[in-house]
Amino acid sequence: MSLPEHLTALAARVSNRGRWGPDDQRGTLNLITPEVVRRGLAAARQGRVFSLAIPFDEQGPQHGSIPGRDNPRREMVMVHTPLTGDPDDFCTSDDRLTMGVQAATHWDALCHVGYGGELYNGTSSAVVGERGASRLGIEHVGAVVSRGLMLDVARALGVNRFDDGYPITGDDLDRAAALGGLEVRPGDICCVRTGHMSYWRDGDIPRFHNPSPGLSTASIEWIRDHDVAAVATDTVVFECYPGDQRGVLLPVHMIHLRDMGLAQGQLWDLDELAADCAADGQHDFLLTATPLPLTGSPGGPVAPTAVK
User: Fold this and answer.
1) Does residue 89 form part of some domain?
2) Which residues contact 113 (CB under 8 A, 6 or more apart)?
3) How many domains does the chain have?
4) What local confidence, expressed as pLDDT, does residue 204 receive?
5) What angle do CA 187, 192, 199 make, to 5 degrees?
6) SS3 147
């Protein structure tokens, strides 16, 4: 059995299968309508910008817990090279990048996770092969621009960061929204802060198999009820780990991606923005977060930008 009965029932309640047609490949990102984009533009009231990406370098957060998810490694292939042979003529410097697509700040594509032989919208998992995904790849996400909301769960619960596998619930998300004076509306993108990035800055971010705070199955209906377009977190795993459902590996991933078609962002750096939101009281912002459209990929690196 892929999921226990109570989670199967939950998945059925929150399912978006067929909601945007049988051929849909964007899932909840369809909730970002022109009206929602204008709402996001209206949130850019101060003209101050924040990058939500961690550095893409060899000092990244991966420790080998997930095979092939290697930290970005950049290599110079030309260093002030004269292409005409004359060093006084045109010279160029070029480099190349090798990395696990989901090693640093990224979005997960809808082909990333499934169960029971199916991906989002009833798509067979057989669409993913050695050459990538013929459907539901990250290239179908397209441009991502919406109103972003800072849901600072850590501050809402009175801590700087969670040091264990704290399971974030819908009630916790309500408390974070109340802290920011926010009304969560359809098409919004929620940035859920746990403070976990401070581990990475200290050079001690936990490995995949260590306890990690994150969204629990008790948050899933909250996200569906609010028709959130996407959720991004500042953790390695996204959901609480080892999890609130004993014996079930990453059930939030399974239900979000396969049943809801919800875009998931991981390893977003939310600390600077969250501190600024706490200082001035503005917890909404314009968010641009278009992933690199790698054809057929189960994920896409992204450098999100928030504009307050």
Assistant:
1) no
2) 119, 250, 253, 254, 257, 258
3) 1
4) 67
5) 150
6) strand
Within a domain: 45:
yes
Q: What's the mean per-residue pLDDT of the chain?
A: 95
Residue 260 lies in a domain: yes
- Integer Cα distance of 186 and 37 in angstroms: 11
- Alpha helices, DSSP H, located in the chain: 5-14, 34-42, 153-156, 170-179, 197-201, 220-225, 251-253, 271-280
Q: What does the alpha-carbon distance between residue 240 and residue 69 come to, in Å, rounded to a whole number?
A: 20
Q: Tell me the CATH number at 185.
A: 3.50.30.50
| Model pLDDT for residues 36-65, shown as the tens digit of each residue | 999 999 999 999 999 999 999 998 888 888
Domain coverage including residue 254: 5-66+99-307
Tens of pLDDT, residue by residue over 193-221, are 999 888 777 766 655 557 889 999 999 99
Task: For residue 242, say if its preceding peptide bond is cis, omega within 30 degrees of 0.
Answer: yes
Question: Which phi and psi angles does 123 have, rounded to 5°?
Answer: -75, 135
pLDDT-based confidence at residue 168 (cuts at 50, 70, 90): very high
Higher pLDDT, 146 or 245: 146
Residue 93 lies in a domain: no
- Tokens representing residue 249 in the block: 């590996």
Residue 257 has a pLDDT of 98
